[in-house]
């Protein structure tokens, strides 16, 4: 029986979100909050592995109280338990501080039920760093298998997992000891439709919520803004591309005009 924990995040829908032209920051109120798409595939894969090998699927997230909605979505997908760490001490966390806080929560979960596998999405659509999963693995001292496109086999008795990792020109087959951590690609599966019983369960479900004080052996200097060595100083929308310019005249005249334009824009080629 496997115990799989999927780490998830609630994010703004980047297809809809707008930029504040005055502050150059994302106007999060302009878009609905959704379960990070890559994390949805992580939960889906965890549920499929549970059905294949038996076991329990837990989900873990860090965020403000409204992030409970993301956990409820995971319950709809088939997760069994949900955990959330929520505290102002976590605010402003970068990927380093986030992986530290999630690791402490995973250690607390593991005391109740040992964890065989942690699954994360490849990245979040509001950050695109792909650093939190490997950061958790490093802190837990377990192997990270990134870019997983297919789980070939999980063998708890013999303590190994075999997966296909996506490469630029194909894939590689990797065997790892358990416990380990996967970060998964979207192509690993198709999201299933939630059955009615799961939807009813999710509507009534209340996850376990912990504050920083509930976690054990926490160094508060590594939490939130204090524990974040990186800062996003500015975010802006790229300028709209200028319209093309039609060059007219003889071939030589067009060449001369083109060279003139290139020299005017030479800083773009440096």
TrEMBL record:
Domain Electron transfer flavoprotein alpha/beta-subunit N-terminal: start-end pairs: 23-219
Return one GO MF term. Answer: electron transfer activity
Positions the record marks as coiled coil are none
In terms of InterPro entries, this protein maps to:
ETF_a/b_N, ETF_b, ETF_beta_N, Rossmann-like_a/b/a_fold
| Protein name (Swiss-Prot/TrEMBL) | Electron transfer flavoprotein small subunit
Organism equals Thermolongibacillus altinsuensis
């Amino acid at each position: 029986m496997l115990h799989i924990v999927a780490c998830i995040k609630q994010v703004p829908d980047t297809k809809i979100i707008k930029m504040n032209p005055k502050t150059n920051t994302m106007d999060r109120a302009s878009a609905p909050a959704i379960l990070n798409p890559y994390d949805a595939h992580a939960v889906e894969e965890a549920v499929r592995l549970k059905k294949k090998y038996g076991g329990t699927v837990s989900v873990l997230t860090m965020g403000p109280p409204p992030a409970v909605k993301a956990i409820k979505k995971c319950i709809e997908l088939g997760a069994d338990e949900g955990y959330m760490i929520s505290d102002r001490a976590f605010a402003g966390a970068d990927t380093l501080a986030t992986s530290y806080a999630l690791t402490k929560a995973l250690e607390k979960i593991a005391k109740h039920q040992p964890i065989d596998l942690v699954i994360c999405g490849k990245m979040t659509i509001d950050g695109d760093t792909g650093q939190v999963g490997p950061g958790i693995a490093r802190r837990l001292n377990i192997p990270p298998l990134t870019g997983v496109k297919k789980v070939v086999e999980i063998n708890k008795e013999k303590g190994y997992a075999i997966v296909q990792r996506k490469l630029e020109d194909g894939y590689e087959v990797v065997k790892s000891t358990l416990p380990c951590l996967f970060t998964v690609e979207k192509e690993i599966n198709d999201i299933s439709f939630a059955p009615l019983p799961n939807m009813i369960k999710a509507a009534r479900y209340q996850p376990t919520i912990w504050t920083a004080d509930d976690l054990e052996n926490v160094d508060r200097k590594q939490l939130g803004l204090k524990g974040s060595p990186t800062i996003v100083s500015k975010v802006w929308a790229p300028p709209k591309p200028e319209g093309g310019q039609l060059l007219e005249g003889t071939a030589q005249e067009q060449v001369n005009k083109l060279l003139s334009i290139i020299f005017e824009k030479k800083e773009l080629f440096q």
